[in-house]
Amino acid sequence: MSEALGVGGHVAFDGQYVTITRKGFLARATVGKGEKRLHVSQISAIQWKPAGPIMNGFIQFTLPGGNERLSYFGSQTSSAGKDENSVVFDKKRQPEFEALRSDVEAAIVQHHAPKPSGAPAAESLADELTKLAALRDRGVLSPQEFEQQKTRLLG
């Protein structure tokens, strides 16, 4: 598991999900308190700005169809601080964020790598069941709908 504590946000990566957690006054004043989880399949790009001697840097996770904040010259970091998919960091914390970025990028590449043609169907079945369970847990599917879909998948 990779973790990095930034300015107003904490990012953790468990191999499948990037979790951005925000707490405290700074979170309330910018994006809002709470937690956001992104599966590697949802992340289409990672924008990176290294921290300098005076300015903070940031990591931003881009999602397909997302509407990232456009920023003007000299205001990239302050714009990223207001984006829910970004976390700002200082020079001291940059190595933690570099390691996290590397881990997430490797997982994205692995997720999008072509599967061997002889790959067992059980993997895709397990993936589908995991997705259904996540939809049920988020309240998108009712328990009855989940059971119907699970029965359909299992034959």
Describe this entry's structure for a reader.
This protein is an alpha+beta fold. The chain folds into 2 domains: 2-112, PH-domain like (Roll), CATH 2.30.29; 121-154, no CATH class. Helix content is 39%, strand content 23%. It has 5 helices and 7 strands. Strands 1-2-3-4 form a 4-stranded antiparallel sheet. A hairpin with a 3-residue loop joins strand 2 and strand 3. Helix 4 packs antiparallel against helix 5 (143-154).
Characteristic terms for this protein:
PH-domain like, four-stranded antiparallel sheet, 5 helices, 23% strand, elongated
Question: Concise description?
Answer:
With 155 residues, the chain is an alpha+beta fold. It is 39% helix and 23% strand. The strands form 2 sheets. Strands 1-2-3-4 form a 4-stranded antiparallel beta sheet. Strands 5-6-7 form a 3-stranded antiparallel beta sheet, with helices on one face.
Contiguous uncertain segments of 5+ residues = none
Reported by name, the CATH topology of the largest domain is PH-domain like
Strand coverage percent = 15-25%
Structural class: alpha+beta
Mean pLDDT: 80
User: Biggest sheet: strands side by side, in what order?
Assistant: 1-2-3-4
Question: Helical residue percent?
Answer: 25-40%
Quickly count the domains: 2
Number of helices: 5
Rg from alpha-carbon coordinates: 18 Å
CATH class of the largest domain: Mainly Beta
The largest β sheet comes out as: 4 strands, antiparallel
Order of helices and strands: EEEHEEEHEHHH
By oligomeric state, this entry counts as single chain
The end-to-end distance, rounded to whole angstroms, is 35 Å
CATH architecture of the largest domain: Roll
Q: Strand tally, please?
A: 7
* Shape estimate: elongated
